[in-house]
């Protein structure tokens, strides 16, 4: 089933509970936390305490997307904070990636691999048997509000073919410039999980925007 996973990086932290409630009423299926360390990407964002606080007040699962240089330092704190999925970049600690993904799975959470825009889709091949999802970045990670890179469509289709061949149970997620307007084309290309930040939390009516988004994902007019 296709689903919407709003990225809390784009939310107004002063009004976070109300905005999350509105998104949940509109059909959000999970929360996406972009974890930035100021090294792998230039910005800083959330720590494990934010994940823990969110989990206390929502029934929806939380995905921790580790945009960090040393994910091995962050996995356990986010698992302990209640993250239901932990996504690791293929570009960070590649020699340890199989072990780190296994540690996420052994803890009862969903492991996933993330690819930056210039990382070849076939990089994910060794990990497909053991993960729950691949997250394809359709913008350079580190900043919200960017437009989706047009070349992402070819990468989505290439990744979809690899998944169907190697492990059809793996979900294909997309993060970056995702909107209700481009969602139909992204659906056609093969996206399962739509990570959206500015297009959700930047809308005048968050609940209505999420309903619109989810209607597109259900192929409703």
Quick structural summary:
The protein is an alpha/beta fold.
Distance between the termini: 18 Å
- Average of pLDDT: 94
What structural category characterises the helix and strand content? alpha/beta
Beta-strand segment tally: 8
CATH architecture: Alpha-Beta Barrel
Give the proportion of residues in helices: 25-40%
Bulk shape: globular
CATH superfamily: Aldolase class I
Give the H and E element order: EHEHEHEHEEHEHEHH
Helical segment count: 8
Unreliable residue stretches: none
Strand order of the largest sheet: 1-8-7-6-5-4-3-2
Q: Any idea of the CATH topology?
A: TIM Barrel
Roughly what fraction of the amino acids lie in strands? 15-25%
The major β-sheet equals: 8 strands, parallel
The total number of structural domains is: 1
Radius of gyration, in angstroms, nearest whole number: 16 Å
Keywords:
221 residues; 8 strands; 33% helix
3D structure, described in words:
This protein is α/β, with parallel strands linked by helices. It has one domain: TIM Barrel (Alpha-Beta Barrel), CATH 3.20.20. 33% of the residues lie in helices and 19% in strands. It is built from 8 helices and 8 strands, in the order βαβαβαβαββαβαβαα. The chain has helices at residues 16-25, 48-55, 75-80, 97-106, 152-166, 183-189, 198-201, 206-217, and strands spanning 3-6, 31-36, 62-67, 85-89, 110-115, 133-137, 171-175, 193-196. An 8-stranded parallel β-sheet has the order 1-8-7-6-5-4-3-2. β3, α3 (75-80) and β4 form a beta-alpha-beta unit. α1 (16-25) packs parallel to α8. The longest helix is centred in the last third of the chain and has 15 residues, at 152-166. The radius of gyration is 16 Å and the shape is globular. The two termini are 18 Å apart.
């Amino acid at each position: 089933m296709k689903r919407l996973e709003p990225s809390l990086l784009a939310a107004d932290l002063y009004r976070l509970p109300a905005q999350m409630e509105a998104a949940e009423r509109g059909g959000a299926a999970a929360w996406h936390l972009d974890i930035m360390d100021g090294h792998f990407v230039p910005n800083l964002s959330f720590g494990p305490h934010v994940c823990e606080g969110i989990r206390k007040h929502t029934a929806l699962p939380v995905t921790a997307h580790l945009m960090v240089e040393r994910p091995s330092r962050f996995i356990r704190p986010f698992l302990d904070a209640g993250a239901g999925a932990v996504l690791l970049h293929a570009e960070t600690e590649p020699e340890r990636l199989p072990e780190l993904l296994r540690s996420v799975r052994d803890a009862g959470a969903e492991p996933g691999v993330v690819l930056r825009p210039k990382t070849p889709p076939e990089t994910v091949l060794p990990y497909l048997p053991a993960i729950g999802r691949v997250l394809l970045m359709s913008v350079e990670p580190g900043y919200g509000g960017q437009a989706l890179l047009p070349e992402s469509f070819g990468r989505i289709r290439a990744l979809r073919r690899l998944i169907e061949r190697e492990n059809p149970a793996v979900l294909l997620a997309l993060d970056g410039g995702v909107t209700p307007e481009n969602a139909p084309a992204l659906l056609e290309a093969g996206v399962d999980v739509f990570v959206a930040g500015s297009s959700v939390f930047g809308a005048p009516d968050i609940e209505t925007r999420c309903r619109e988004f989810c209607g597109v994902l259900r192929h409703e007019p």
